[in-house]
């Protein structure tokens, strides 16, 4: 009797460029830390529903962010400030249900973690238990150290977010670049404090590229840039910006990789025209018996 062939070894690559290269197991924190050590860059995209999550997961995007940017891109709010935990938990559950390999990170929304570490833990616990998130992200530098420490101690992975923090836009005076001049020192101090508190990665938003490069060099954990230049370990974009779904002027740091707004608009017009002309539904779209 011939011997049963040994099973093929499990693919350990945490990322890929398409379905054939996609990872065969869930992306975990050690994968991202190893990529930092090897100098391998990776991409993060936002996702707010099952279809975007499924598509990006199959494309090999290793980390998906259920961002409070849903306020601007799902709910039609002017800012992220009105977003609540109840707004985001169902979106998070949809993304985690569809993403088979990507790590799913949930944003903690404004007012849901700043009052105390205990409030942060209660909010993060909802995302982990109800949303099935794999990690959470919160905004703020050194003042958030107690919150981060408690979450990590409770077993909840945390990504920090420094530089421009959208939840604080009213204090910051609008969408302005942070970390210029003397602000670069604060950026570094905040990054180091969050790393020491236990964050496994740090988002830097709208900061000068040279300052972001210095922070990236100084940290042992990955940096994720958005408007922070090319030297970060990873990059993140809102998927509707990346795919050209949103109309109007895009931020300087956005590169559009498609024009879905035009594509969807043309499809809707063609559908409406077919209905008006009586050519849809045709025989092949109808039940004849």
Automatic annotation (TrEMBL):
CDD domains: KPHMT-like (cd06557). 3-methyl-2-oxobutanoate binds at residues 68-69, 107, 137. Keywords: Cytoplasm, Magnesium, Metal-binding, Methyltransferase, Pantothenate biosynthesis, Transferase. Binds 1 Mg(2+) ion per subunit. Pathway: Cofactor biosynthesis; (R)-pantothenate biosynthesis; (R)-pantoate from 3-methyl-2-oxobutanoate: step 1/2. Its main location: cytoplasm. Residues 1-19 have a biased composition (Low complexity). Mg(2+) binds at residues 68, 107, 139. Its EC number is 2.1.2.11. One of its GO terms (cellular component) is cytoplasm. Its cofactor is Mg(2+). It is found in: Cytoplasm. It catalyses: (6R)-5,10-methylene-5,6,7,8-tetrahydrofolate + 3-methyl-2-oxobutanoate + H2O = 2-dehydropantoate + (6S)-5,6,7,8-tetrahydrofolate. GO terms for biological process: methylation; pantothenate biosynthetic process. The keyword Transferase applies. Homodecamer; pentamer of dimers. Catalyzes the reversible reaction in which hydroxymethyl group from 5,10-methylenetetrahydrofolate is transferred onto alpha-ketoisovalerate to form ketopantoate. HAMAP family: PanB. This is 3-methyl-2-oxobutanoate hydroxymethyltransferase. It comes from Nostocoides australiense Ben110. The lineage of its organism: Bacteria, Bacillati, Actinomycetota, Actinomycetes, Micrococcales.
């Amino acid at each position: 009797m011939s011997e049963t062939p040994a099973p093929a070894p499990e693919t350990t690559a945490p990322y890929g460029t398409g379905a054939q290269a996609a990872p065969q197991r869930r992306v975990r924190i050690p994968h991202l830390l190893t990529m930092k050590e090897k100098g391998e860059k990776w991409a993060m995209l936002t996702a707010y529903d099952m279809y975007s999550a499924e598509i990006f997961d199959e494309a090999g995007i290793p980390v998906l962010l259920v961002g409070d940017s849903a306020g601007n891109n799902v709910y039609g709010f002017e800012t992220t400030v009105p977003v609540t935990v109840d707004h985001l938990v169902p979106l998070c559950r949809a993304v985690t249900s569809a993403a088979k390999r990507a790590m799913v990170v949930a944003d903690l929304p404004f007012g849901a973690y700043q009052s105390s570490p205990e409030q942060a833990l209660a909010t993060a616990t909802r995302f982990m238990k109800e949303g099935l998130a794999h990690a959470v992200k919160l905004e703020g530098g050194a003042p958030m150290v107690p919150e981060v420490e408690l979450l990590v101690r409770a077993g909840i992975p945390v990504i920090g977010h420094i530089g421009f923090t959208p939840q604080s836009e009213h204090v910051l005076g609008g969408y302005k670049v942070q970390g210029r001049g003397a602000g670069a020192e604060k950026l570094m101090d905040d990054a180091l404090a969050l790393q020491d508190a236990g964050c496994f990665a740090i988002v830097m938003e709208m900061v000068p590229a040279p300052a972001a490069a210095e922070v990236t060099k100084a940290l042992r954990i990955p940096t994720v840039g958005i408007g922070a230049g090319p030297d970060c370990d990873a990059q993140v974009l809102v998927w509707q910006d990346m795919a050209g779904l949103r109309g109007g002027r895009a931020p300087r740091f956005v590169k559009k990789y498609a024009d879905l707004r035009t594509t969807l608009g043309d499809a809707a017009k063609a559908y409406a025209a077919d209905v008006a002309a009586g050519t849809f539904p045709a025989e092949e779209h109808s039940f004849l018996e």
